[in-house]
Specification:
It is built from 3 helices and no strands. It has a domain at 66-136. It has 137 residues and is mostly helical. The longest helix is centred in the last third of the chain and has 21 residues, at 111-131.
Length: 137
């Protein structure tokens, strides 16, 4: 226990302040105050629920068309083949097959290399569409 602390009872407080404006101290009136005596106020309020409410049925569940599946597949393939490590690996294989004209002298991909890489991407996508049966999922 700390020895340099002060107990709350030892503080020099003369009196506690009285605040009567607090919501806890206000008297709650249960009577209703009506400004115009001609207005009739019904003290009870009722709520009614309709028993014949129809539930909305979804007739067609979410069906992916073949075009949507193709878009998803091509997007995934693009993200995969656009990674620098995979792209450099594939470009090195294409340079071995088709020659050094696919890369510039600085080592970057030339315009002809981009064309060959695009053709490789298209052929890969085409082969995947032949292998994958879109109707099964």
């Amino acid at each position: 226990m700390e020895t340099h602390t002060t107990n709350i009872a030892e503080l020099p407080i003369d009196s506690t302040p009285q605040n009567n404006e607090l919501p806890e101290n206000t008297v709650i009136s249960t009577s209703r105050h009506i400004m115009d005596s001609n207005i009739n106020v019904d003290p009870r309020q009722t709520v009614q629920f309709n028993q014949n409410v129809g539930v909305r049925q979804i007739d067609h569940p979410l069906i992916l068309k073949d075009t949507h599946k193709m878009i998803i597949l091509s997007t995934l393939l693009f993200v995969l083949l656009n990674e620098p490590l995979i792209r450099n690996y594939i470009m090195n294989i294409l340079v071995v097959i088709f020659g050094s004209s696919l890369k510039t002298t600085t080592g970057s991909i030339s315009k002809m290399g981009n064309v060959f890489y695009g053709v490789f991407f298209a052929l890969t996508l085409y082969c995947l569409t032949l292998v994958i049966d879109f109707n099964s999922f």
